[in-house]
Amino acid sequence: MRSVARHEEFPVELHSSAIPNAIGGNYVPDAAIIASLPVGTKVLSGESHGSSAWSLTARLNALTADGVAIRFFVKCVKGDEGKSQLKGEFIAQSELYKTIPNNIPKPYAWGKCQEQSPPTYFFISQYVDVDNVLPDPAKLCSVLADLHQKSASPTGQFGFHIPTYDGKLPQAVGWDSSWTSFFSRLLGGVFELDTKVNGPWHELAILVEKTRAHVIPRLLDALVSDGRSIKPCLIHGDLWEGNAGTEFGTGNLFIFDSCAYYAHHEMELAIWRTEHHQMSPKGYRKAYLNRMELSEPAEEWDDRNQVRRQ
Q1: Cβ atoms of residues 74 and 59 within 8 Å
Q2: Cβ atoms 278, 291 nearer than 8 A
Q3: How buried is 39 (Cβ within 10 angstroms: 0-12 exposed, 13-18 middle, 19+ buried)?
Q4: Is residue 63 within a helix (H) or strand (E), and if so which, with residue range?
Q5: pLDDT digit string (tens) for 32-82?
Q6: I need a labelling partner for 85 at 20 to 30 A (CA). Which of 46, 218, 224, 243 fits?
Q7: 202-210 and 179-198 helices, crossing angle to 10°
Q8: What pTM was estimated for this model as a whole?
């Protein structure tokens, strides 16, 4: 699972209790990681945990200054991409934690490792032991409704103050007062990345151009016509079944590994239409709509949902 913490400049100054001393397990954390834990924390062991195509993930077993057992999740990514990616994850998770702290693993810190070459960056959060079962639709959508209703954009606009990453892919989430132009730019950024990785595809380029020029304005401008308005609210941004889980013992639901930004609340549901995700059944969308009303024109909800699927 993930976590949150303080945001520090590099390098991290080591406190004396942070120096590794006979740490067990198959993962020994960098000194800067240990220094970023709460003061007085004693790391007992580190273990590789989970798998990722572009990052190293681990769990730290530790004691607080008061001798209470505590565990931390650590993610490390190499290079400048890792710096931007983990900074984005830390700040995104921190923003979510401010609004729904009972459902977000507490973020502790992000920073630069001191002993790694090439330069490597880390993100630390609370470790939460969750199951691998699909989350209960009603419980998940209750959490989302709270997030969407309680959050408020600090600028009153759509977007985020730094780039966030969908996996290892940066998102074009600069502030924009218009949901139509924001979403069009977001889709354009996805297409640019696809072209960069896979090369030009003329037919797709034509389709994307027509979608941005005609389909998106037709569907999204209607949300703010005839005196209507929509609220920018904080969304997780990548909420599939791998990024949510129920904690063993407590039954509390957690969401993590976000690429958050401020968006129209319906945007959160678009990923659930993707067929290879297990949360695609309509039961999840129905549970959400039991808590949150559709924006008008309601009869165009399904069309909006499909175009946002990207």
Answers
A1: yes
A2: no
A3: exposed
A4: strand 56-63
A5: 999 999 999 999 999 998 767 779 999 999 999 999 999 999 999 999 999
A6: 46
A7: 180
A8: 0.90
Q: How far apart are CA 293 and CA 230, in angstroms?
A: 12
Pairwise CA distance, residues 260 & 104, whole Å: 12
Cβ count near 28 (within 10 Å): 16
Please give the Cα distance from 84 to 77 (Å, whole number): 10
Amino acid letter, residue 134: L
Q: Which two tokens stand for residue 308?
A: 């946002």
Residue 175 has pLDDT above 60, yes or no: yes
Kindly state the average pLDDT of the residues 243-269.
Answer: 96
- Please tell me the predicted confidence (pLDDT) of residue 278: 84
pLDDT in tens, 125-135: 999 999 989 99
Cis peptide before 118 (omega within 30 of 0): yes
CA distances (Å), origin 5, targets 58, 92, 305: 17, 12, 34
CA distance 154 to 68: 37
Nearest of 141, 167, 139 to residue 246 by alpha carbon: 139
**Tokens found for residue 215:** 């389909």
Q: How far is CA 157 from the centre of its chain?
A: 19
Q: Would the pLDDT of 18 be above 80?
A: no
Instruction: Determine phi and psi for 159, rounding to 5 degrees.
Output: 130, -155
Q: Is the peptide bond before 200 cis (omega within 30 degrees of 0)?
A: no
DSSP result, 126-170? E---B-SSPPPHHHHHHHHHHHHHH---SSSSBB-SS--EETTEE
First-residue to last-residue Cα distance in the chain: 27
As a whole number, the mean pLDDT across the chain is 91
Query: Are residues 310 and 187 in contact, defined by beta-carbon separation less than 8 angstroms?
Result: yes
> Quick check: 21 pLDDT over 60?
no
Q: What is the pLDDT of residue 30?
A: 96
